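**Paired protein data**
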Amino acid sequence: MADYACTIDKAPPEARLPEPGAAPARASPRACAAVDSATSTAAGPGARIAKAAANIGKSAPQRLVRGKWLKHDMPRERLIEQGPGVLSDTEMIVLVLGSGLPGHDVFNVARTLLDRFGSLRAMLDATYSDFDGLRGIGPAKKAQLLAIMEMARRSLVDKMRDRVLMNSPEAVKDYLRLYIGGKAQEVFVSLFLDARHRLIRCEESARGTLTRMAVYPREIVRRALSLNAASLIVAHNHPSGAVQPSASDCRLTHTLRDALALIDVRLIDHLVIGADTTYSFAHAGWP
């Protein structure tokens, strides 16, 4: 029940008369309560029972919560108190979307996003049109999601540029899984490195269909010369999720390795990126 802060002037013993033309003074809540109490007492038990019956169903206003979530269960409060690691994928999306979804529960929108893409990693490969048809996701939210995904990709690239990639194979694999792991078609990328094995540039060298891709070793050799690269890591994804290389993958690796050797550029590895695992030609002993 709401509290009322009432101030009551101390009147002198003699009664105060109102100024001519003044509006009648309003009684304070406390005074009203006193009058009600006096009236109720004078009227007897019957009046008190009738008044109690009239007040049935009147309750103090309840604190509003978002859906079924109490304040201490909301993602933002849990992140602040316990850290981001305790949040589910749905809750992370809720924090990104924030509020401003009139007529749509933000938790349902987040679940719908995950249902469409399957995982956060797959969302990183989404385009603007991939969000079409999702209720509660307008142009502003689409742009916001795409910007955050691009920030994640760029941060990994910057992180790799500051490292000697030969000493950070897991960083390379993490980046490639993020970059091409969830794509619906085969993509072939080349990481050009300098003499100290630092990243010069990461480029998409070829893009194919679900099952076929044409890669031209001479174009990769030409690009390595133009960037003055000393070594190279190449990778491609398998949309099926399996990482076992095909016969054509083995032939391409052999051809590219020999072609780069002619210009004194070393092919460090060829990685095949799957759903959850990575195949390394170098670790497997090459084709």
